[in-house]
Model the fold of this input.
Amino acid sequence: MSRVNQYEKLWMWGAAVLILLFVGAIVFAATSQAVHPPSHVETIDPTTAAKSGEFANPGVTTTGDGARVVMLLKMYGFAPNEVRIPRGRPVTFRITSPDVIHGFQIVGTNANMTISPGYISQFTMTFPTAGEYLMVCNEYCGLGHHLMQGKLIVEEAG
Ligand code: CUA
Done:
């Protein structure tokens, strides 16, 4: 057996081990840490998103037993910039962007989504603790990226 052949085998096994490690890391994150791609796929025309439909008037709507938050993330701000939602009730966030890719994160929770133009990102979550939370853009989106933030206020449900 030549030396070249031996090296080739070594590389082959090395690559196989790496592939197993990467696939293992994905399975681990998906099963034990609930990291997964969004299950909600809904498209929207980014050129008209801010002008018509629900995103023309973003804000909070209280529904029967929870709330619905419609938000627009754009360079460089959150609309609305302050959001009030009830504690202990399911709140559905629906967010899109009319310009570039932004990130939506509620600091101190596991709420974290990529907001892409052309898509409506959505998730539902219940906040067990009342208080003030910081919402930030966690995807670099331009010179004003660091200015993109908002306030989320979780209130005792009336
Ligand atoms: Cu928007 Cu960073």
